[in-house]
Write a structure and sequence with these properties.
The complex is a heterodimer. Chain A is built from five helices and no strands. The radius of gyration of chain A is 41 Å and the shape is rod-shaped. Chain A starts with a helix and ends with a helix. In chain B, α6 crosses α9, α9 runs antiparallel to α10 and α13 packs across α14. In chain B, 56% of the residues are buried. The chains are: A mainly alpha, B mainly alpha.
Amino acid sequence: MGIRLKIITGFVILAALLVISGLISIYELTKLGNSVNRLINDNYRSIDYSKQMAMSLEKQKKSLIMAINGDTAKALILFNSSKVEFNENIRNATNNLTIPGEINYVDSIAIIFSIYIPIAEEFIKNPQHNISIYLNDIQPKIWAIQDKVTDLLTINQQSLLQTATVLEKSPYRTILPGLIVVITSIVFSIIFNYMISYYMVNPVIKITKSINDFVKYKKPFEVSIETKDEMHDLKESVKNLITTKSIQKN
Amino acid sequence: MRPHILLRYIGLVMLLNAAFILLAYLISLYHQDNGQQPLLYTFIITMLMGIFPLVFVPKTFNLSNKESYFVVVLSWIISCFIGMLPFLLWGGEFTITKAFFESVSGYTTTGASILNNVEALPKGLLFWRSSMHWIGGIGIVVFMLVVLPSLGNAQMTLSKMEISPLAQENFKFRTRKMLNIILFVYIGLTLTQTILLMIVGMDLFDAINHAFATIATGGFSTKNTSIAHFNSLPIEIVIMVFMFLSGIHFGLLYTTIAFKKFNIFNSPIVRYYFFASIIGITLVAINLHTSTYDNWADCFRYSAFQVLSLSTTTGFANADSSVWPSFSVAIIIFFTIQCACSGSTSGGMKLDRMVIFFQTLKSQILKIQHPQAIIPVRLGKAIISDDIVNSVILFIVLYMVILLISTLILAAMGIDLLTGFSASAATMGNAGPGFGLVGSMSNFSTLPESALMVLSFDMLLGRLEIFGLIMLFLIKSWK
């Protein structure tokens, strides 16, 4: 194999190692990016929907108290707007399921809410505002909805924590493959440098020294080249030249 | 020392590894598991690094003894580093130290694992674990010599360095013939065991992996509870037979098969191996009957499997021997230190040295009784030279000293004595499981990472028969 091909092979291998390193880095960073994306877009959204449900529920509780105080018209407006808000958040949460089993929590919230709404509406519209209905029928349902919303919030927070833990280890795992290839590339570069030095630079130095020795001290031109490449051809050419010159001189 | 020549031979070894990594990758690809990427990356890196020296360094057949030593030792160490890459890139339970430990354990055919859940590994990586056993079983460099037919004189010098000196004594063939015999017996045993395991109910994948681990006397299983997972007597019998055969000198197995002469028992080493195993199994079975199992059949089933598994340095398990009584534990530890015949795939001290040691002891006692008599050390009809006797005694002493130092280091790390000593003995002897925290049904994951590094070094020392690795650390020998 010729010197040119040998050097090209070395550089091709080095380039291949760098390409692999790059590909691994791109792949791992994309994976890391996707995890971050999931963390922000999915879990965080679910948590936000849960919080908004809790806030809507607080508004409904306020509207019920306003109704008890006799401010029925305002209470009804507040109740209806918060009902729309709550339903919208249930719908958003249903469309943003990220954890196995999350659907069960959302469904149970929707079911209890659908039972609670007619009773609460009836309570606000009824001018008598029977307090025992509020205490026995409405409040337990509000608490049940609050519990389920809290559960939904908790599982999303736990999932967030899990994702964060995975992300904590991710930089190590992301760096490691690239690092391995980089270390390999460095080792390879050292070996490549050694090979170039041993098989290309050293023979040139040896040939030069031997030519100088011949010219200065008339020492015979004797250089040993291990490879059968251009260096060997060069040595043979110099040897032939010296022999021819010597014959001509004699 | 000519580093470029070393690089050429190490390059060949890397290409051999790359071929097996490619095979593991294809298995991963077939099963569509998540081991594909780590195996592919490792294959590309190993192949490129292996090819490069071949491009530059011309063929050289003359290697000095020193160069051959370095080729052998460096090939083992570099292979261990390559072997850890798929695990490290895959992730899971593997840290850098743990991946290195698993890789060293694979190549040195120790079979000690840090994995709590082996079954979580993708099939490609499971195959790679078993392949490391199979490559390391007959020696990485011997494998390369067998695969590459024309390496001239280098073949002789390299095989001289790789094969245990005691094993070479028993091979009466030329180098090429000796290597062919090793390959013939190795592949023959592996194929036969794979077929037999499939007949008794294992699927192809498990059968190949367990055959690789048995014939190489490795011990990596594809199941968390090793052979106990199958709870099948026929499977255990097949594995026991092949563990025993893998502990016998391959040259003897070859002459028995090739010349159809049942002359295995002509060898005093094999006779000792056979009767020591029978006595060990019986003693452990009796001890188990008094304490652990009521049924004699169970006692013999479990004792036979565990004693053969550890005496051949395989390391498979069909029961949790760490809960067995102290007497059984002591006997099994003795077998873990003694190991099986040289010229086989088993690691550790080798039984031949024990026999020579006992013969030397006998000869010394006779000399005391008859001071004027010349009493040579004999092994069968052959007289053992003083040089061999001296080297055997030195090896045994050195082996025990290293075992002691390793135990002390582990004790200094806070590891209890039983765990520390048995882990050191099991890793030095390339046996695998020990007792205490590292029992046959547990693993090495509970040990600190610094302890895993010490044990990795023990495994390499045991596999390279101490002197090879020590030489690498003597800077004078580099010149």
